[in-house]
Amino acid sequence: MLPGELLITRTKKGRVYPAFAEIDEQHLELADELIEVYKDFEGKKKSEIDEIVAEFEHGLNFKLVRGLRTLLERRCIFKSKFAVEPVVARRAVFEAASSKKITNRKEREKVIETVAKKLNISVDDLELSLWADQESEVVLDDFALLKPEELLKLYNRSLAQTLLFKSTGMNVSFKGNYKEIFRAIKYLGLMYIPEEGNKIRVEGASSLLKLSERYGTSLAKLLPVIVNSDGWEIDAEIVIRRDTPRIYHFMMDSKSKNLLMSKEKESKTTFDSGIEERFYNAFLASPASKSWELIREPDAVFTGKTVFIPDFKFKHKEMHIETYFEIVGFWTEEYLKRKLSKLRAMPFNMLVAIDRNLACFNSANFELGLHQPVMLYSRKVPVGDVLRYLASIESEEIKREVERLKGTRIEIEGDLIPIKGIAMRYNVGKEAVRACLNHLEYVVFKEVVVRKELLNEVKKKLASKNIKLYLEARRAIEDMGLSNPDEVLAHLGFTVKWSGLDISAASIELD
């Protein structure tokens, strides 16, 4: 954010446009030169840096340069360098000079020498300490370096935030980053109203009563979080006061993202409790993770006047099914009732796990009143129960897909046909394909459909070459284009005979 006097905008047909700095050669060169000043002048006084930077403001866009300068100074750490506290040094000099009449430089030098000797420091150290706490005398101790492009994007974002200071409200739509956005809204004390789709109206109590710029401060702080979303749009009402206050619309979307600085998203998955984290890790270690993707805090669900972000979403990797999972582990009755109220408003089923040790849960007058499937847990969520729930959903979906395929002849041709390709063609899961395929000339394996003629050729090859070793048999089958040699051997009636743990000694034998 920038001081209001550095805001640069233009208005046209009821809209207001901030004068963003283009990410072009001219602006990148300016940003680079300013960065180099602060980088090279580490250890120098602020007054020296100000003199150099002031030269850039002549003949250029004053507000732009001053805005970039403001942002760079926020990345600086200035420190006072002194041998004794400046206040102590000044008091000692003034007390020594008060008893004498100082009219020339020589008399001043005598006072300085006397005080320096008294304070047991050198004259130079005393001179340095006298005004070391003044802004112009502080020294650049550290500078957080950034790239020219980053500086320009930071400037553009700050310009947009400064404009939002004057906002009385804002309509926002976004994809992703729901958790961070709603946490920021709550933290900033913003009022919001969910609207149709992934849209919200962010309001403030003051804006409902009268036009005020005060609420825009909180709205401005929300912008960096919004910019972190994958796709977003904002439409803010901006009050511009000239002869009479007038409201203009400031509109911007994710197409402008390449002009704005955004925070790096954390790739690490975070959790609200140890229970959630333990469940997450246990599920990923289970066989079900091969079929189901577990998504932590997925897209927000808009339910009437509230927004709900479930703890987890299960998304099947093959079939078009997904379901949500909420772990309720907070202990207060008021919180649980609010949570249950949101769950009752869900337009779909969601698996809910509730801590059976909640004091309020055990009270006589407390009722769940949920139409959602519920499981109770103690200390940790029973992963096995969750897996059985997912298996039931998967089974029901397979039944629906099989029913949908009834009466449809699945067309296949060739010696080898991947089941995945068939499933994609008919928009069903692989299990439904396996259940419905019934071609007499083909054999259905787990991942592939194979013509019987090809399998007979494999059997003849193994017999004609008198192949007995397991590894040799595998290579022969794979050479014929089959990637599932163990399934093929079993189908052809072969069993593997092991001699210890050495795979090279294993042999095959026809039953």
From TrEMBL:
* One Pfam family linked to the record: DUF790
Give the top-rank taxon of the lineage listed in the UniProt record for this protein: Archaea
PANTHER family tied to this protein: DUF790 FAMILY PROTEIN, VNG6129C
**This protein's name:** DUF790 family protein
